[in-house]
Each structure stands twice: as structure tokens, then as C-alpha cells.
Write a structure and sequence with these properties.
There is one protein chain. By secondary structure, this protein is of the alpha+beta class. The protein folds into two domains: 2-208 and 366-426, FAD/NAD(P)-binding domain; 212-363, no CATH class. It contains 14 helices and 22 strands. The protein has helices at 33-45, 62-70, 81-85, 92-101, 104-112, 133-146, 196-199, 219-222, 257-265, 267-272, 289-302, 318-327, 341-352, 408-426, and strands at residues 2-4, 25-29, 50-55, 75-76, 118-120, 125-128, 150-153, 157-162, 168-172, 177-180, 182-185, 205-210, 212-216, 228-235, 242-249, 253-255, 277-282, 354-363, 369-373, 379-380, 385-386, 392-394. The strands form six sheets. The protein has a six-stranded antiparallel beta barrel with strand order 13-16-15-14-17-18. The longest helix has 19 residues, at 408-426. The two termini are 28 Å apart.
Length: 428
């Protein structure tokens, strides 16, 4: 059954206004941040357009809801496009131009003009002042309703074919077909052989996970579940991968911003290692080995009768310090006065160069990001239109662009969604 969009009834009860007839027919695939923003922008840019958004799952904006621990890390307070682009392991240089057209300042203004104020935290992450992702969801849904965007859930795109006269015939997962003039793919990754863009002639960089936590088999690390420390330096020997920042010990291994950033920059390299590699940890990156040895010598003189195990070693949490003393092979009863030089050197090694084996990964519960997707040379970043297929556009995770944790992936979604929406809405 062929359903022409201008004839299709609005099946979403939240959109009561009738759709204009005879305008440009636009379909957006993917009900996440990029797809929603693209659909809204297209409808705002061309009120005569009929804009339909398809989401294969039962709910739209699922990642928005869970991001930032349910608070939604909307963007990052970095307002220089070149500096901001450095936070994208893949696609950063390509994003410089788009970020100058629609960057964090524009994102802030967009939401605040619709009644959503944002706040900046100490690390630059920006959240709604309500600390609730529902605020962002309500804003986007309201904007979609106001602009008569038709939202169809549990409806995905199975395949797309070019029409002789231009535009597309789309086959949906529910068995129906419809026609459109312009198509925005803002869905996540899927297998190359079933990807609609691949069916139309695009190539794909195979998607692999980014932003994941590390499984560490070492029992003593798992016993530290809940312990966090900032800063910690983590690195992968034999590679350029190194990050410094907060680290959290978990029941499975290691997490926290430093681990997530390391996973993002090393997404493909760590995938190639099958997520089995050695990780080096410097728990006290602000101290040199020489300074640590000097401090230990001072402790010998001032805390002679006190055991190392019961000492306080700033800035380490007590539980972590106790484990590091044990990892150095030092007895729980060893006093500072009886700490030998070889034992002190072993303790310095434990503090500044702990090595653990990573045996796997888990996707971070607040972020599910992949690297890979449509190769950037195949897209015109002035419009987000395909260089191969006229009328086909891309935004968000559909592209081979991904950022580290901290609001960067959402900013990519707003930026590319806005540019694609404007281009689709205003193009003749």
C-alpha cells in the first residue's frame, strides 16, 4: 500500500493541528536528539512543509531521558568552535564550520527562548536548572507540536528507493510505504547490508562502541567499588592513549570521566584488541616519584611508630591507600620507621604505576555512543546533504562523528540537526 504523506492521517494524538497540503514532504528517521531537532527546524523553516518523524521504538528521546543521570547534559560551556572541536575523537575538524553556525551559544539561546534555562557546572557541563531531562523532552515535544511535526513511534525505515522524478519511496517496518521529497537519516548504527543509506549507494564505517567502562578482573579493584578519586592518570602502554581526570572503582572494574574519555579516543584501537589490554594507573599524577620518596622519608621521621596501613595519605581515600600498600607487598603491621628503601620504592610504583588487566567492557549506562557511520567526505557539511544522493541528509550519530563525555555528543546532534533541518526546509 502506497501512502502519500499529504494524505496520511495524523496518528499521534499529541498533534491536533492539521498538516498543510501541497508543501514539501519531509521524513526524518530517528526520534533522538538530532532527528527531533532536525524535524523541528525543518518545520520552522518551512511552515508549508509536511514533516513526519519515524521512530522504530515505542518512545522518542530515550537517550535524552537517561543522559547525565536523568538530568540531560545539554551541551558544554566551550564557546570557541576550534577548541570545542578538539573534544571529538572523530570528526572534530569537519565540525569546526558547522559549530560556528550553530554552537553552544545558539543551543543555549534556543532552549532559553522556549523557557528552558540552563546552568553551568564546574567542569563546563550544562544542564537544565531543573536538573531533570524531562524539562528538555517537554520543550522538544512542545516545539514539535507547535510546528505540526507528525511523530510515528514503533515505525522504522526498512528501505528507501529513489523516484524517477526525484525524492524517495520508503518502505516502513510495518509493511506500508510512503513518498517524500527529502529524507533525513538521524538513526543510530545498523548493519551495513540493511542500512538504507547503503542501499542508496553510500559506504559505511563499521560502528564500534565508544564511551564504555572497563572490566578489570583484579579482585582488589572490585573490592574498592564506590571509591572515586580525582585526578587520576590512566594510559594504555604501547599506545598514545592517556587521560587524566576522575576515576570511579565499580563492582566490574573502572569507570568515570577519565575512563570514558580514554575509551572514546581509543574506540577502534581497543576494539581491535578485543577489549583485552593492560591499563596503567597513576593514582597521584600531581606527585613525582622523587617527591613521593621524599614524603616517605619524612614519614619515617615523624610517624615512626605508626603503621602504614592505618596512615592517611592525601589525597587517597583510606580504602584505596590500604589496597595500594598491600599491592606493594607491605605487611599491614609495618611501621613507618621500619619501611625499607626497596619497600618504599615498591610503594611508589604502586602509587604511580599500578598495572591491571582489562578483560572486557560495559556500555556506560548514561551514554550509548558509537564511532562509525557515514564517512564524512560523502556529506556536504554546509547543508548536511549527501554528496551522492540529492535530497538525502544526515545528522547526529548517523555520521562518523563522536565526542567524549560532557555534552559534546548532544551538541553535535543539535548542530547537525539544525543545519540539516534548515537546508531541507528552505531548499526548493
Amino acid at each position: 500500500m502506497l501512502v502519500r504523506m499529504s494524505e496520511r492521517p495524523d496518528t499521534d494524538s499529541t498533534h491536533d493541528a492539521p498538516h498543510p497540503l501541497g508543501g514539501t514532504r519531509i521524513v526524518v528517521v530517528g526520534g533522538g536528539a538530532a532527528g527531533f531537532f532536525g524535524a523541528i527546524t525543518a518545520a520552522e523553516s518551512n511552515p508549508k512543509a509536511t514533516v513526519t518523524l519515524l521512530e522504530k521504538s515505542a518512545h522518542v528521546l530515550a537517550k535524552v531521558r537517561i543522559s547525565g543521570g536523568g538530568r540531560c547534559n545539554v551541551t558544554q560551556a566551550c564557546f570557541d568552535a576550534r577548541e570545542l572541536s578538539k573534544r571529538y575523537p572523530r570528526g572534530g575538524r569537519t565540525l569546526i564550520g558547522p559549530l560556528t553556525r550553530f554552537g553552544p551559544t545558539d543551543t543555549i539561546e534556543w532552549f532559553e527562548s522556549r523557557g528552558v534555562k540552563l546552568k553551568t557546572e564546574h567542569d563546563g557541563r550544562m544542564f537544565p536548572v531543573t536538573d531533570s531531562s524531562q524539562t528538555i523532552i517537554d520543550c522538544l515535544v512542545s516545539a514539535a507540536r507547535k510546528n505540526r511535526v507528525r511523530i510515528l513511534t514503533e515505525t522504522g525505515l526498512k528501505s528507501a528507493q529513489l523516484r524517477d522524478e526525484g525524492g524517495f519511496v520508503l518502505t516502513l517496518t510495518n509493511g506500508t510505504t510512503l513518498e517524500c521529497d527529502r529524507l533525513l537519516w538521524a538513526g543510530g548504527g545498523c548493519k551495513t547490508e540493511s542500512h538504507p543509506a547503503a542501499q542508496l549507494g553510500h559506504t559505511l564505517s563499521p560502528p564500534v562502541p565508544s564511551l564504555f567502562t572497563f572490566h578489570v578482573h583484579s579482585p582488589w579493584i572490585r573490592e574498592l567499588a564506590g571509591v572515586s578519586l580525582d585526578p587520576v592518570e590512566v594510559s594504555v602502554p604501547g599506545t598514545h592513549l592517556k587521560e587524566t581526570g576522575p576515576v570511579l572503582c565499580t563492582h566490574a572494574g573502572l569507570s568515570g570521566p577519565a575512563i570514558l574519555r580514554l575509551s572514546a579516543w581509543g574506540a577502534r584501537k581497543l576494539h581491535d584488541k578485543n577489549y583485552r589490554f593492560d591499563l596503567q594507573i597513576n593514582w597521584v599524577p600531581k606527585s613525582t616519584p622523587e617527591a613521593l620518596l621524599s614524603e616517605m622519608q619524612s614519614r619515617r621521621e615523624t610517624s615512626g611508630a605508626q603503621t602504614l596501613f592505618r596512615s592517611r595519605w592525601n589525597p587517597l581515600p583510606a580504602r584505596l591507600w590500604e589496597q595500594l600498600v598491600r599491592q606493594a607487598g607491605i605487611s599491614d603491621q609495618t611501621q613507618w620507621a621500619k619501611l625499607s628503601r626497596p619497600a618504599a620504592q615498591a610503594l611508589v610504583q604502586s602509587l604511580s604505576c599500578t598495572k591491571v588487566s582489562v578483560t572486557g567492557k560495559s556500555m556506560n549506562k548514561e551514554e550509548f555512543v558509537t564511532c562509525g557511520g557515514i564517512p564524512l567526505p560523502e556529506v556536504d557539511f554546509k547543508t548536511m546533504e549527501s554528496r551522492l544522493v540529492p535530497g538525502l541528509y544526515f545528522a547526529g550519530e548517523a555520521l562518523d562523528i563522536d565526542g567524549i563525555t560532557g555534552g559534546y555528543n548532544f551538541q553535535n546532534a543539535w548542530t547537525t540537526g539544525w543545519i540539516a533541518g534548515r537546508a531541507m526546509g528552505t531548499a526548493l
